[in-house]
Here is the input.
Amino acid sequence: MASTACFIIVSRNDIPIYEAEVGSALKKEEAAHQHQFILNAALDIVQDIAWNTSAMFLKAVDRFNDLVVFFQEVHELYIKILLNPLYLPGSRITSSHFDTKVRGLARKYL
Amino acid sequence: MVDPASSFLGKMLLEEITPVVMVLRTPLVEEACLKNGLTFVQMLQPFCVFNNIDVPVRTVSDQPYRLHKFKLRLFYASDIKQPNVEAAEEHLKEVVTRAAEKDLSDLSSDPPQLDDLLAMNSESLPLWFKIFNKELIRTLSFSEHEAFDHPVACLLVVSSKDELPINKFVDLFNTNQLPSLLNDGVMDPKILKHYLLIHDNQDGSSEKATNVLTEMRSTFGMNDCRLLCINSAKDGSEERIGSLWTPYKTDTSPSQDLGCLLNVNDVSEIKDLMQDLSSKHIIPHMEQKIRVLNQQVSATRKGFRNQIKNLWWRKGKEDTPDAPNGPMYTFSSIESQIRVLGDYAFMLRDYELALSSCRLLSTDYKIDKSWKRYAGVQEMMALTYFMLDQSRKEAENCMENAFSTYLKIGSTGQRNATRCGLWWVEMLKAKEQYKEAAGVYFRISSEEPSLHAAVMLEQASFCYLFSNPPMLRKYGFHLVLAGNRYYMSDQKKHSIRTYRSALSVYKGNSWSFIKDHVHFHVGKWYAFLGIFDVAVKHMLEILACSHQSVMTQELFLKDFLQNVEKMGKTYEVFRLQLPIINMSSLKVVFEDYRTYASTAAANVRESLWQSLEEDMVHSLPMSRSNWLEPEAKSSKKDKDSNVCVVGEAIKMDIEFKNPLQIPISISGVSLICQLFPRSEVAECELTEKDAHAHPYESASGEKNDAEELRKLTSNWELNSGVSSFALSEVVFSMRGGETTVVQLTVTPKVEGVLKIIGVRWKLSDSVVSYYNFDSDHVKKKNIKGRKKSSQSSSKNLKFVVIKSVPKLEGCIRHLPGKIYAGDTRRLVLELKNQSDISVKNMKMKISHPRFVIPGSLEDLNVEFPSCLEKNSNSEHNDVQPSSSKQPKSSLFSFEDAAIQGGTTFFWPLWLRAAVPGRISLYLSLYYEMENLSSEMKYRIFRIHYDLEVLQSLDLSFQISPCPSKLQEFLVRMDVVNRTSSENLQLHQLSSVGHQWEISPLQPNEAICPLQLLKAGQALSCFFKLKNCRKSSMFEGSISFHSLLQGHDVRLGPQGSDKALFDVSGSALADFHHHERLQQGKSIQGQQGTVDFILISQLPKNRADHGLEGQSDLPQLFSHHSCHHSIASTSPVWWLMNGPRTVHHNFTVSFCEIRLGMAIHNSSKEAISIRMSTLDVTSSDGQLSDVAAAAQDPISSENQGGWHNVSLGNDIKVTSDALGTQFGKSSSDVMAPFVWAASSSTRVELEPMSTTEVPLKICVFAPGTYNLSNYTMHWEVKLLGVPLSAGDRTRQLSGRSPGHPYYITVLQSP
Here is the structure.
């Protein structure tokens, strides 16, 4: 299946701290900004929902069964990043280890 | 909740769903009206709206109600038809384009701010959205499936000038120009008719007209006829009333005077006409019609029976094939009639009736699968629900239903769906459900062509903006979508407008791709419109797009440069991000009193230099004075800023980084400076203060930037004209991702205050970027030569330029980068003074005196290495190096050497690579100016070199006492060649110090059999070392010179006649001194230790040229090994003298042998010695224990070739070793012997004296005896001198066992 997905972790104030394009489809030149546009716009909805529900914990947020594992695993990885005393929360995640792990998870679960 | 009627949708419905009056007129009517610049319909239009008509209306219920507002829509019969699709599209496009034209003015202005956007409400929306929506809805007017656009009445107008007006009236209605609605039987051709006769008062009196009117009345009926007189105004006499028409006339040309011939009477007449038409004819007619229709409907459709019947009847029709629009309904069909009933009721605001009839109808249509009509009815229902303000849910359901139904029927229903959507949107908006409204807009947009979609999307974006809380990201996203669509439909101005608004949302966020997309496209579109400056401004934002692919980067850069080119002038930018300047790497190198030989020297930490120069410069201004002390009188101003000298360049290293993966070319990189000549310094201070007072005032960052740019540009322009300083310019190109450090210089030419403000460069020869260093948010740390790092950067970049003073430049000549350990050579320090003033009082300090020492001036002219060779005609070289007199201090003074202006000065230096490894050599040279009037009294010249020293020879010595001679030692030297490839020739070994004399073990043999010591080869040699110190020499202090006086052994192959090197000669002695310092703690030659110097050479004719091809220089290696212990610490040396073999006839008597014990006191104090002899039998038990404990024949110490000669523990170790020897030997003794004479002898020994004690033994049998069973007790006589600190560690008394002495007694025959 040639699908493409974009996974972005956004910190406070809309700052994307991690971006990964996953999926098997060939990369398109326009895809990068399209993904960003869509995900950025989606944040409005997220923000809206965040006021109404307490179930916004990353581990529990997605109801789709095949995605839930992915999110759980990424969450674990993210916590590991947070535990790094040299990582300033809210700054860009540059760890290549994190990147490869996330991409690996994406291949596995998405 | 607002009243639905006063909401926007309500108003729109009240305007749009109103009775239509079809107008039929003769050409002459039109002609009369056109005199006023108006068509007939236009003339009537202002009077079709009644705001307070106050008509009682009674529809189906018995209760009449009053209608206050009413409106008629007038159309010519020719216009009552479905508009042409292409024409409609064209019209819509025109609306959009016109709106764009209007917006063009603010395209070049600043984009809207986010705060302003948030302050907007739905009223402040651009008006043209409403116009567009209305026009879009109008493209659907006069549809067949709805009745509210069907004409309710017909107005027939004939002019009084027409011939046979009555006939004309009849002809008008009978011509086949009637709209298709009537002709096709969609609507009832029996329509309410009203007859109007127009009389133009300019054509004469109205008499004829009244005649015609009476004729008309008789023909068409009393009430349906009317006369209207117009154009009764006299030119210019009446007040102007043209403004009445302006809102209705869209294409007004200003020359035309609207309604110029209509006076107040005419107007009131028209007003009366319309009022009468609506209240007396149309409304009653509609009431009538509603009642009739209602009756009909009730009769056929209402009630249980009718419903059953209807169902049954419709069931039967089910088999008919589906027509796309469902079955055809004529005006007489009950469905059409219900629809008319509903629409009429709606128009007369009897919404209950309208709703009930629509409901009735919708089920019918549904069953009939007449989907378009069904959707239309659903739509109507939704609107009535809305107007009733009853059930919001129902209204929305109906709308949704209608919308999806229209969509379902395909292309024919598309536009209807759009209209339906627009109504739906307005409905939602009226209830402030903006988010949902936006969703509907979005749905519409997907059905419409791109232009319409763009408008819809833009409206959607505004809905997101107005929703609570504002959904800004969606707002931005939809604006971008809209802009994209606008672009597709060739509306670039709109595209720019939307993208620009989107920018306000995306500004400052870090979604890089979004930003790039928006800026790039806005820039591109501006460029299309020819507004290049703005285009370039937007393009600038995306230049540093390192996250994009190479292709995109190329595209961005190419477009940018193209646009700049099209601008036709060099574009000036503040802080261009291409390339990026790494501010933290910024480094300024300048020379005040500190000058540097090379950049390497300048890069060395200041503290390192300072520690080196500490005692050289006493008056350093930055000497660590207590901060409590008041500031010295040196002016504070000078302390605050750096000092530089006229004519000397200030260098600035700037690191440029190319963030892109494509190459860029940079040219004209140079600094921007400001130099205030001395006379204007005060002024400069002032501006400084100003600058400090201001930066916080201008809050807006953008404005600040522009300000900065302006300042920089003006400064640069000044720069190019001014000759008070010279700037360097650099041109370079950078590959993708490359980082380049560029050195820029500024050379002041006059005294004053110089400020480095910024840097300027050109990208691809077209864009000039200015970059100022003096910004608050950039902190620089690496500024060279400043101790106070807390100083702001602006201070750091300010220099006080002082008068030109001499500056020394120079280097060390012939300094190799790589060198073998031990390599000793002569170097030359070359100093140039290029100024006119001479310098004096030079002092030099070297960080590693072990490696480099200054020579004497004489060294310069002699030949190396022969200058180090022993002078053949004199035993001692009396020429002493000047430095060796005071070698303690590493500060070297050049005495009274002075360098005249413009001359070059040479001074020899000696280099010896002491230990392997990497060595950083620092040389600091202090000098003073000849004329003290200058502002700078002295300067320091700093030289720095890195040296890599490779391993060459490993040297170790082993010294053991010679068993046969007092004061003689055996020396074993082990040499290993550790070089990788060099062969070394051992030349000589020298012992240092006069009291030692080294000589070969056997005088006539070659010690070293080898010609060369090959790489990796090891060699051991043996020597004899003799302590030749005489007691006589112990008078007065020992001079250093005599300490260094040594003895040499030639190591080369036999017969080599090469001269020996004089180790006491200048350079070698100095190095040896430092080596001693390094290797040992004490400088004073302890008598217990000995130093060796091994000198080796590289063979002269080597095939390969070793390191760095310096084979032409004869190379000399000197290895110094110091503080070798002579293995005895006891100050007492003794030696048993006597025969070794004795022949005796034991048959006669026992043998009596006389022996002598020579005892020497080598210490400086008198010693008392007691020697006790022991008999073997008396101490066997104890001694055998010792023997058992140390069984190995000879102590390991004597055997092991490699060992460290440690100084601290020697005493213990050696005495133990001797103890074992003693024990062992005692056990070997076979036959007893006895010591004769006294068992204890006490001797007092003066310092450095020798005495002989006679001994005697009696032997009773032949054999070999070891005469070691005695002990030597010694005690230092201190003679009342208090113990000095050094003495405490010394042993003051001791007991040593005897040395082995073997004597063989034989039976004589």
